[in-house]
Amino acid sequence: MNRREYLQALGIGTVGLMSAPAWIGCRYPSNKPAKPMEAFRNGTWIGGHVGDGSIEDWKRKFKSLRVANIDAVLLQLDAAQLAPLIPVAADEGIEIHAWMATMMQAGMEDEHHEWYVVNRNGDSAADKPAYVDYYKFMCPSRKPVLEHLEKQVTDLASIDGLGSVHLDYIRYPDVILPIQLWEKYGIVQDKEYPEYDYCYCEVCREQFRQESGVDPLEIEDPASHQPWLQYRYDTITRVVNELAYVAHERDIPITAAVFPTPDIAKTLVRQDWVNWDLDAVMPMIYHSFYNEPVEWIEQATREGVEALGGKMPVYAGLFIPALTPIELAQAVQHSAAGGARGVVLFEGKMPTDEHWSKFAAAVERVD
Asked: Which element (helix H / strand E) includes 258?
C-alpha cells in the first residue's frame, strides 16, 4: 500500500481534510521577532551529548559538521547544558537551537495526573500510554499545561545567543501511525480506534460541549465529525501561537518539527501547521515511514510550500537511517526542487563519513 492508497483508505484523499480558518484566536495578537532566521540553511537534530559531553568533544563535532555544510544544530538539552555550548559552536560557524519535546513530557504523572490526555476508552496516557511507555502526552486544553510550557519556552528563549526555540511533539498522540510502523507494533489501523483517539478528558469534553452542545463521547463516528476534529486542530494551534508569542517577546524565533504534509499531519496527529504563527516549519519527510520512494520528498515538500503560500520557510526533515549516501544527496536535491529553503537531518550522530561527503557536495550544488 503506497501513500495515495493509504490516505484514500482513510477517506481523506490526497488534498487537505477541510479548509481551516485564516486566523485562530488566542490570548495574544500575532507578533514577529526582529531577528529573522537568516543564518539557518541546513541543520541537524542531535539528542543529548556527543562523546562524554566535554567541550572538546563538542568542539570536534561542531567543526566536522561545519565542514559538511551544516550551519545549525537543534540540540535536545536543558538550558543549563545549552548555554555553554553556544559560544563553542559559534566559533565553528554553527548556530545552536533549543530542541524541545513539547506535549510529550513524562515525569509529572504523580503530581499532575490530570494533565495527561485521555483516550476514547477513558484511559489516561499517564497510566496507559499508546504504543510505547514514553508516549505520555499532556492535554493542550488545560491552562496549567500551557503555563508549564510557557515557562519552559521562557527559560530557553532567555539563553544568550540562542538561534531559536524548536518545538517537537507539538501534537496529540498518533491516532493512526505511519503505515511502515504498523508491522513494528503488530497493529492494523485502517480507521481511528478508540485506544489511540485523544483527548476525551473532562476539560476537553466540557469545552467542546459548551461550543457545540455535544459531548464528544456521544459522537457516533468521531473520525468524520468535522467540528470535533476542528476543535482539536484549533487547540494545538492555540498552544503553538501562544508559545510563539512568548518566544517573540524575547526576540527569539520559534520553529516546529511537524508531520510531512498538511493533510497527513491533520489526519494522523491533529496538526494544522499551516495556521501556526511560526518563523519556519520543519516537516519530517521520512519517506520510508509511508512506503514512499526518495522522489516523494519533492512532492511532500511542495505540498507544504504551496499550502503555506510564503507565510514561512520550509526546511525538509530527512531520515538518515532510510538513506544511503547517494540517496541522501538525491533527497537534498528533491527538497530544493520542492521549494525547501534547506534541510534538517535526523540525526546528527548517524551519518557515516560517506554520508557527510555526499551531503556537503549536494548542498553546494543546490546553493
From this structure: strand 254-258
